[in-house]
């Protein structure tokens, strides 16, 4: 499946890393391109779900999607939100650096609203990632069962 393919995860991680460097470290991009962080956080949510299922898909002792469906989804969303909170701490550190060392002052209410908006986008991206993963897994299992029945 493409969502758990190592090449896809590496490509997505590299793309998001480059985009984050451009968007967060470039004051020009943050001030001149409105809402540049929305697609970054949506893709970050999808990527965090891909990483979660890549790490834990074969660990049935920890998370078994077939046996304990709701708990696995809750843990996957929690993993996505945890990574989103870590990214928000990083963004806060950059804003602090810009305020104290570069003299660029952003209002506190803007930063709070922006952080909450980013966390909502991480949640939506994570939810979309779970939906995409489950649809892809269902198609894969149906295809696998058809090929096994034909070969028998």
Could you please describe the fold and organization of this structure?
The protein has 152 residues and is an all-alpha fold. The protein has one domain. It is 82% helix and 0% strand. It has helices spanning 6-25, 27-32, 37-56, 69-102, 108-151. α1 runs antiparallel to α3 and α3 (37-56) packs across α4 (69-102). It starts with 5 loop residues before the first helix and ends with a helix. The model has no long low-confidence stretch (mean pLDDT 77). This is VanZ-like domain-containing protein. Keywords: Membrane, Transmembrane, Transmembrane helix.
Proportion of residues in helical segments: over 70%
How many beta-strand segments?
0
Radius of gyration from CA coordinates? 19 Å
Structural class: mainly alpha
Quote the beta fraction. under 5%
> Average pLDDT value?
77
Q: What is this structure's SSE topology?
A:
Layout: H1 6-25, H2 27-32, H3 37-56, H4 69-102, H5 108-151
Helix pairs in contact: 1-3, 3-4, 3-5, 4-5
Protein name: VanZ-like domain-containing protein
Organism: Candidatus Nomurabacteria bacterium CG10_big_fil_rev_8_21_14_0_10_35_16
Transmembrane segments: 39-56, 68-87, 119-136
Features:
single chain; 152 residues; mainly alpha; 82% helix; 0% strand
Q: Care to give the gist of this entry?
A:
The chain has 152 residues and is mainly alpha-helical.
């Amino acid at each position: 499946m493409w969502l758990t393919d190592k090449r896809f995860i590496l490509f997505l991680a590299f793309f998001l890393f480059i985009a984050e460097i451009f968007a967060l470290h470039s004051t020009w991009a943050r001030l001149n391109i409105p809402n540049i962080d929305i697609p970054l956080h949506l893709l970050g949510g999808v990527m965090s779900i891909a990483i979660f299922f890549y790490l834990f898909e074969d660990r049935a002792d920890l998370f078994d999607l077939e046996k304990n469906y709701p708990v696995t989804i809750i843990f996957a969303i929690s993993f996505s939100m945890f990574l989103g909170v870590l990214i928000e701490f990083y963004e806060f550190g950059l804003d602090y650096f810009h305020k104290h060392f570069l003299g660029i002052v952003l209002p506190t209410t803007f930063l709070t609203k922006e952080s909450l908006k980013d966390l909502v986008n991480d949640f939506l991206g994570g939810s979309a990632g779970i939906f995409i993963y489950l649809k892809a897994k269902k198609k894969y299992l149906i295809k696998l069962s058809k090929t096994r029945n034909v070969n028998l």
